[in-house]
## 1
Amino acid sequence: QVQLVESGGGLVQTGGSLQLSCAASGFTLDYYAIGWFRQAPGKEREGVSCISSTADFTYYADSVKGRFTISRDNAKGMVYLQMNGLQPDDTAVYFCASAGFGGYTCDDNEDDYYHWGQGTRVTVSS
């Protein structure tokens, strides 16, 4: 059974940092791109970052570029999202998802992601 479990969310002040983790089980993580998405209150879900299965390619939304860093440890079945310089606009529920493909690319198209975690909440206070 494919399972993705996010952790690491919480309450942080503006300018603070959090590291989100995504634990994958039930499939071979090595073969698939992984994405992080977020949904803020009253807004649609949006792509934040993704990493190719080979970890050679990463993507960041303009809103987080330079502040967030995605990484993966296939041996441990883990994907991470290091978030620095957090702002109130980063407040959202963050989801990790596994894409239906691997290789040297990834993207922020939700339709390409077949399995999703339950989300972890990040709240940034001003």
## 2
Amino acid sequence: QVQLVESGGGLVQTGGSLKLSCAASGRTFSNRAMAWFRQAPGKERMFVAAINAIGGMTYEDSVTGRSTISRDNAKKTAYLQMSGLKPEDTAVYHCAQSLLPYITTSPPPAQEFDSWGQGTQVTVSS
């Protein structure tokens, strides 16, 4: 299994930007799809964005146009650049590694991912 560690969260004002990082260690990184999910207090975990092994991306509708997912296979790191942040983006953001090199559907089911990070808190003030 791979170990995932997120960083880059913090407190920002509405309209601000953040870039989250997800550093992986352990097994091969480049041949697995990566994704970001988020969980707000009292709510279910929700899909945010995913990137497959060859760089194809998919996004949840509410972040489309405001977020960019990327990966650096040499650094074994995935990223989520977010801009135009809104208070409703406040959540703990988790990265996850898929069992597969691609995402089977959007949003992907959580069962496709076998490794999860502990998360990084993003708080957007109004």
## 3
Amino acid sequence: QVQLVESGGGLVQAGGSLRLSCAASGRTFSNYAMGWFRQAPGWEREFVAAVTFSGNSTYYADSVKGRFTISRDNAKNTVYLQMNSLKPKDTAVYYCAAEFRPAGGVVVTTASLYDYWGQGTQVTVSS
């Protein structure tokens, strides 16, 4: 089992920034690719960003490319999502997820392929 705990959400004005963190425990963190997803009320959960087990490769949804940055620190068992130039449409509950993938440069954007999920953290962007 892998336990994931997100933090860093909150209320911010449009144009502002937030940094989300996701702390992992339970298994070898560096064996997992990590992803961030979000879900707004009435919408399906959508992919935001992902990073490979090593941190060498990242992938972003078009809607956040150039504004969000995903990174990881395997020594701290933590993955981050730096969110800049936030927009009201970024308002959602943000979830981190782990997929067992200890090798390769492939990142997965499909939520159903992830093995473990955190409880989510609310991000609200006011206009």
## 4
Amino acid sequence: QVQLVESGGGLVQAGGSLRLSCAVSGGTFRRYCMAWFRQAPGKERELVAAISRSSGSIYYEDSVKGRFTISRDNTENTVYLQMNSLKPEDTAVYYCAADLTALDVVREGYWDYDYWGQGTQVTVSS
């Protein structure tokens, strides 16, 4: 049973920073492409950032480029999302997701991901 547990969400003022963590257990972490999605009220779930198995390929959604950094530690079975210069429009529930893929690539569709965390709330006040 693969489990993903997010932590690090919270309330922050605009311009502040948060670091999200996602600990993965029950599977072979290095075999997964990992990603962070978010969903704001009334909006569709969107891919924020993704990182391939070797960290050789990384994707960022345009609105977070230069502000967010995704990274992974294959020895700790954990993926991180460092979020700087936060804006009110970053407010959402953030989900960690794992894609069990044989390829060292990033995939962008939510349907590609096999396992999901429960989500962590990020609220940015203006």
